[in-house]
Write a structure and sequence with these properties.
Blueprint (H helix, E strand, L loop, with lengths): L1 H42 L28 H13 L3 H24 L3 H28 L6 H10 L1 H11 L1 H17 L6 H11 L6 H17 L20 H10 L5 H26 L12
Helix pairs in contact: 1-7, 2-4, 3-4, 3-7, 3-8, 4-5, 4-6, 6-7, 8-9, 9-10
Length: 301
């Protein structure tokens, strides 16, 4: 009897062990599926409409207006025209670099990579974003369903070559952290890529480095200047560009306040960027005008 009970106990223990093994494996597979889903969602981040800003909060707007209506073919023609524009085209490359690096610099600094790898890694991350954007643009032009598995796979594999070069440069573990950081930013909205972080990228490209305490002070200054000019938004009639300075009233006030933190040479770099951004915005608006039909006058009664 005791022998039988022992055998039963062993069988139950074995069955429990097998069940636990499959439960752990299932949980691991589900976690991997969630990670892959998040990465797929990150690939389509530019296509996911963002929620409108909270009432009373800072406005969220891009440098150009949304693409004109007319379907995927018109949008693709519009984007291609923008890329060919002699002012907007080169500016967009710098704009994308500013945006991408402001998103990843916090993680890159925390990884403490060898300095000879940091520059090439930044270049590859920017290249990856451009390749991904081009893949999405081609997919949009084809009119294919973005939610289809084939579409998701096409975008996910568009950056395989750049991903392989990143992994060869920094190793498998760091490459994984970069992918997870990218996914976390788009999925959970934790991107540290605000205007101050992007200004830090522009200053870095010009040979200047911002300390963390400077970035905190600049972020507060940006917020205070926005509150002083709540109704004035860059690029709109309420905050027109002064033809003499090439800047808006709000930007002039902002640069005056930023002298509390930045040197005259650093301010000059940011002023030059702001002037260039206004010129690029005007060029983009001119391109867009070709794709938007002129309003027709209402018939007289």
């Amino acid at each position: 009897m005791r022998s039988l009970l022992a055998w039963i106990s062993l069988l139950l223990a074995a069955a429990l062990a097998v069940a636990l093994f499959f439960i752990v494996r299932l949980r691991r597979d589900l976690a991997q599926e969630r990670r892959e889903r998040d990465l797929d969602r990150a690939a389509f981040a530019d296509l996911i409409p963002r929620p409108p800003p909270q009432a009373g909060g800072p406005p969220r707007h891009g440098l150009v207006e949304p693409p004109p209506d007319g379907g995927p073919a018109v949008v693709d023609q519009y984007n291609a025209a923008l890329e060919r524009d002699p002012i907007w085209g080169p500016f967009f490359q710098k704009l994308e670099r500013r945006r991408v690096l402001s998103k990843f610099n916090v993680l890159i600094d925390a990884l403490h990579l060898p300095q000879d790898k940091v520059g090439p890694l930044r270049d590859l991350l920017v290249q990856r974003a451009l390749v991904n954007r081009e893949a999405v643009r081609r997919l949009r032009a084809s009119g294919e369903n973005f939610g289809a598995p084939e579409a998701i796979a096409a975008v996910a594999h568009a950056t395989d070559d750049v991903d392989a070069r990143i992994e060869a440069l920094v190793g498998k573990d760091v490459a994984r952290q970069l992918r997870e950081w990218n996914s976390a930013i788009y999925t959970y909205g934790t991107a540290p890529d605000g205007s101050v972080a992007q200004d830090a990228v522009t200053l870095h490209e010009a040979g200047f480095e911002l300390r963390t305490d400077q970035m905190v002070r600049l972020a507060l200054i940006h917020y205070e200047v926005f509150l002083e000019n709540f109704s004035a938004r860059p690029g709109l009639a309420a905050d027109p560009v002064d033809p003499k300075t090439g800047l808006t009233k709000r930007e002039l006030q902002l640069f005056a306040r930023e002298r509390e933190v930045l040197t005259a040479n650093e301010i000059a770099v940011l002023r030059e960027w702001a002037v260039e951004a206004h010129k690029a915005r005007a060029a983009a608006a001119a391109v867009r005008a070709h794709f938007v039909p002129a309003p027709t006058a209402a018939p007289h009664p």
